[in-house]
Amino acid sequence: MNLITSRKSWLTAPVLALVCLAIFVCIWSALDPATVTSLFDNHGASPVELMTLPLFALIIPLVWLCPPCGGSTKRQCAWAALWSLLAIMAIVRETDLHKMLFASIWPDIAESFTGTVFKMRFLKAGYIPFMPKLFVVAFFALFFVAVILPLVRYIVPLVKGFFKLEPVAWTMATFGAASVVVMIVDRLPANLRHAGVELSETTLSLLTVLEEGGEMTMALMALLAALQSHLIFDRPKE
């Protein structure tokens, strides 16, 4: 419990993230690129991917059993529902369920469109019918509402808490850092390929490790933040 609520518990998240990173890099350095890739990325069926999904799913019962905020029951339920929505969106993104659903409804469009349809250039394409575009817009709207609402509500307390060494603020900062790393390494191979730079199999496997390992780290940080919030902000007043 001290690792979550003690005065030095702000170190828990960054230390945990660094330990995870060290483990992932050690695995990458010890195995050949093909084995590393199969462990971390196998179209949703690799060991790391299959471990990440339950971590995100665990957020849902956790926030309902241990509300991450105080106040009335109505307020606790509202924020538990929002946390649950975020977890569901994370699982959907991890498993590409939104892409599979789109492809099942509009298979011809999904096959003919180059790349993923969940991009702005898809919405700008003049030959795409209205309903597929509405589906993509609705998904984006649901995702951004789920992300922006808590961000707008807590951005100021989190920034202040970061400088005050508050554990939840540091956990969310670590979560944000991991998400930035995931986004960068996800797009880096394609961006370099477009620039005429070809990466070796070893480098590509390292980027895979950082991406998939980063997503697992994000799930761990989200669980830790929810538990810290419950223990710190929802404990009975003395």
Notable traits:
79% helix, 0% strand, globular, 238 residues, mainly alpha
Provide a compact summary of the structure:
The chain is mainly alpha-helical and about 240 residues long. Helix content is about 80%, strand content about 0%.
Q: Would you kindly provide a written description of the structure presented here, covering whatever features stand out?
A:
The protein is mainly α and 238 residues long. The chain has eleven helices and no strands. Helix 2 (12-30) runs parallel beside helix 10 (167-194) and helix 4 (47-65) runs antiparallel to helix 5 (73-95). The model has no long low-confidence stretch (mean pLDDT 89).
Biggest pleated-sheet summary: none
Terminal Cα separation, in Å?
19 Å
Order of H and E elements: HHHHHHHHHHH
Q: Look at the helices and sheets and give the structural class.
A: mainly alpha
- Rg calc: 20 Å
The oligomeric status of these chains comes to single chain
Number of helices: 11
| Helical residues, percent | over 70%
Tell me the number of strands. Answer: 0
Overall average residue pLDDT: 89
| Outline type | globular
β content, as a range? Answer: under 5%
Low-confidence stretches: none
What's the layout of helices and strands?
Blueprint: H1 2-5, H2 12-30, H3 33-40, H4 47-65, H5 73-95, H6 97-105, H7 107-112, H8 120-124, H9 130-163, H10 167-194, H11 201-233
Helix pairs in contact: 2-10, 2-11, 3-11, 4-5, 4-11, 5-9, 9-10, 10-11
